[in-house]
């Protein structure tokens, strides 16, 4: 059942004296009317006269203290799944300009970094795919919707919010939740020219972005066969030759401890990104020597005085300064008879990094896109150019179970405009496009879009005689990356 949240002029006027947010003023420019669905303590003064009614209708939202809110999560999390929420904003009484504003993200809600959102207003793009956390910061000082002109009474504004759990969302966040909060305001257009319109949310801002927490520590790769490279010395670079960071990251040695002059048993290093690879923060280091591995956590990595050692091979040696870690930093390391004489040389190093909302290790092409190949870079959104000859209602169908159950998503395809289609990030990868014209004629577009990247993306979809055509403009994969559109065969 849908909910409708409504604030009328009478209710606004009743709040003037007690809150002091709204005040009535006259002037030569004419009279203004603001209707606000918002947290009043966040807003500056506005003029209130005339008759203006602002209403919000949505199926799964809640209204609390003037905010329209959607909650995500709160239970099991399945990466790649998501959905769509629609809000319908209406004004009545007089034509009005409408503003939307977001609320600063909650620093105690890490899940917001792992929810990808895109927002469209009357099917026009307002916000490209990015994290919910970023969306919550972007429009905190308000944005007019649509971006110009007045909204006529009974001509509603549709706001569509598409959301997806990212592929690297940590399962440790299952049960947690994140919230999208929206504020709305409207100003009567009568007597107010475009240049004189006032944004009721102007001047609001968020605190600086705090340092991100390491919610999930994921393996980046391994530098192997190091016993064949001895001795490893300061200034050496060790390439990652296994794992998702292979060929994209190196370990630059900044300190090294030798045994017997030619066996390296302890190191420190910096993680160096190559080419377009993003910088990453180390959160765990594992060094193998003999049959065991030493483990160093994020706190120990941050200690500049700590050397990372391979394990001891003599269980009777009690000179271990890193209890339980099989590492050591005693003075005397490197001497033939010192406390590190029984350590094995380092044979491999494994490194782990903090996962981020954009944490992906797919190879990036020079033009900034990643290939759609090998079924490893599933497409979850694509943008199509539509050239007519008339506006149509576009239905996109996907089989979501083995017994043929279908899921249908609907979009407005308007002549001369792009239409962005969101795909289910899991289940069956084939999507069939149908269009319905104004007279009810059904148009079938071929071929179906196959999103698993096991075969090329179709660059053009059309009906049998080519009258109606959708041309692929861009695509985004489950890791929030732009996908190269030249395709790859099975």
Keyword list:
490 residues, mainly beta, Immunoglobulin-like, 6-stranded antiparallel sheet, elongated, disordered N terminus
Shape label: elongated
What about the largest sheet? 6 strands, antiparallel
Q: Helix/strand-derived class?
A: mainly beta
Average of pLDDT? 75
Distance between the termini: 45 Å
Number of helices: 4
- How are the strands of the biggest sheet laid out side by side? 1-5-8-13-10-11
Helicity level, as a percent range?
under 10%
Approximately how much beta-strand content do the residues carry? 35-45%
User: Can you tell me the residue ranges where pLDDT is under 50 for at least 5 consecutive residues?
Assistant: 1-50, 315-338, 357-367
How many beta-strand elements?
Answer: 30
Q: What's the gyration radius in Å?
A: 29 Å
Total number of domains: 3
């Amino acid at each position: 059942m849908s909910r409708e949240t409504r604030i009328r002029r009478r209710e606004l006027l009743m709040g003037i004296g007690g809150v002091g947010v709204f005040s009535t003023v006259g002037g030569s420019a004419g009279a203004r009317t603001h209707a606000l669905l918002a947290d009043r303590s966040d807003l500056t003064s506005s003029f209130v006269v005339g008759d203006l009614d602002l209403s919000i209708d949505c199926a799964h939202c809640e209204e609390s203290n003037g905010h329209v809110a959607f909650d995500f999560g709160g239970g099991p999390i399945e990466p790649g799944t998501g959905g769509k929420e629609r809000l319908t904003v209406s004004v009545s009484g007089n034509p009005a300009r409408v503003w939307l504003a977001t609320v600063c993200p909650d620093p105690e809600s890490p899940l917001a970094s792992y929810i990808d959102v895109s927002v469209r207003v009357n099917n026009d793009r307002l916000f490209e795919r990015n994290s919910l956390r970023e969306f919550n910061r972007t429009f905190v000082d308000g944005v007019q919707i649509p971006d110009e002109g007045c909204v006529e009474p009974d001509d509603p504004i549709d706001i569509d919010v598409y959301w997806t759990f990212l592929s690297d969302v940590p399962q440790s966040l299952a049960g947690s939740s994140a919230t999208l909060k929206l504020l709305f305001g409207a100003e009567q257009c009568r007597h107010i020219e475009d240049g004189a319109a006032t944004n009721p949310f102007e001047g609001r801002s968020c605190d600086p972005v705090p340092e991100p927490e390491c919610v999930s520590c994921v393996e980046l790769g391994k530098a192997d066969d190091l016993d064949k490279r001895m001795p490893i010395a300061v200034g050496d670079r060790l390439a990652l030759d296994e794992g998702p960071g292979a060929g994209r990251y190196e370990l630059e040695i900044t300190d090294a401890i030798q045994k017997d002059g030619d066996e390296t048993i302890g190191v420190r290093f910096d993680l160096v990104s190559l080419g377009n690879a993003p910088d990453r923060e180390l959160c765990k280091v594992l060094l193998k020597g003999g049959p065991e591995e030493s483990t160093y956590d994020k706190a120990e990595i941050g200690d500049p005085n700590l050397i990372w050692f391979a394990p001891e091979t003599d269980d009777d040696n009690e000179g271990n300064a890193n209890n339980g870690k099989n590492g050591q930093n005693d003075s005397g390391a490197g001497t033939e008879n010192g406390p590190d004489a029984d350590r094995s040389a380092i044979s491999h190093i494994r490194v782990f990094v903090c996962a981020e909302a954009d944490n992906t290790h797919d190879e990036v092409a020079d033009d900034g896109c990643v290939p759609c190949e090998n079924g490893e870079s599933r497409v979850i959104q694509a943008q199509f150019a539509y050239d007519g000859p008339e506006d149509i209602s576009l239905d996109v169908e996907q089989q979501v179970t083995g017994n043929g159950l279908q899921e249908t998503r609907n979009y407005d395809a308007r002549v001369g405009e792009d239409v962005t289609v969101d795909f289910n990030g899991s289940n069956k990868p084939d999507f069939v496009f149908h269009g319905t014209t104004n007279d009810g004629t059904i148009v079938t577009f071929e071929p179906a879009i196959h999103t698993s990247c096991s075969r090329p993306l179709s660059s053009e979809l059309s009906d049998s005689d080519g009258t109606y055509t959708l041309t692929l403009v861009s695509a985004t994969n489950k890791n929030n990356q732009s996908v190269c559109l030249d395709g790859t065969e099975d």
